[in-house]
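Example record used in the benchmark description.
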Amino acid sequence: SAGSALELVGCSCAGNEATGNGGALRSNGSLTVEDGIFDANQCGNIGGAIYASDGDLTIRSTVFSDNQNPNRGGAVIASVPTQISDATFTGNQSIEGGALYFSGANLTLARIHFDDNQAERGGGLFARCYDTAPCDPVQIADTTFSNNRAVSAVSGSGGGLEALNVDLEVSSSTFSGNQTSGAGGGLYLAGATRARLVNLTIAANTAAAGGGVSSSSSLIVREIANDIVAGNGPDDCDRSLGVAGAHNASSDASCGFAGSGDLESVDPRLAALADAGGPAPDHALLPGSPAIDA
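Model output (structure tokens):
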């Protein structure tokens, strides 16, 4: 109930069904989940495993697999302050936000692996604000989006991530092998979104346009530094990102990298996506990469 607090440790929630919201859990208080497994839950509306509509949500060291619903948030939907760390989302499905749909203020993601999730918009994550001005920050760090899909007969957008009208900060993260039938194989940035993209590897993603990054305006990206955007198809970006960055590298000239130490139309020599001992798989730099010490 509203104002209550619930903490679940070591919960294994599998095969649950709800006709409405939240296949396994529906929370309108403070909810903490730790060391849990949510597998093959489903619901008739939103939040295949967890629906959080009031209070706050904290998730630690939890696996969400094969959860689904026909609307939003294949595994989790939240409109409350949310912190998720050391979690894995794999094989979840919905229409918007294959794994996670967020529409509130203050989302923090750290050391997450979004893999093989599917939606029409935001294959891994759909973060949006319903106001015309950006909401409080969506902060993502040390996270990998891999092999997620945003596919629709109409268009699709944001194979890995879609951000709409949010204040977005993504750092030390990887977008690899994501795809969409529309725009933004890795990331789709739209509306009033303001984005800071630092220390990212965005590689081998595919889309109809903006294989790596698609933005609806050249005003969206406010900071970009130490990023590798390479090997995306049909292009790395669908427009110049419109901001002077530093020490970025791209495999074509579509992102408009022209800042100090930037490299365009180079092969950054990335190893295949693999577990290198970090919080999630990433692409190591092979010997001879022009991005080493660049």
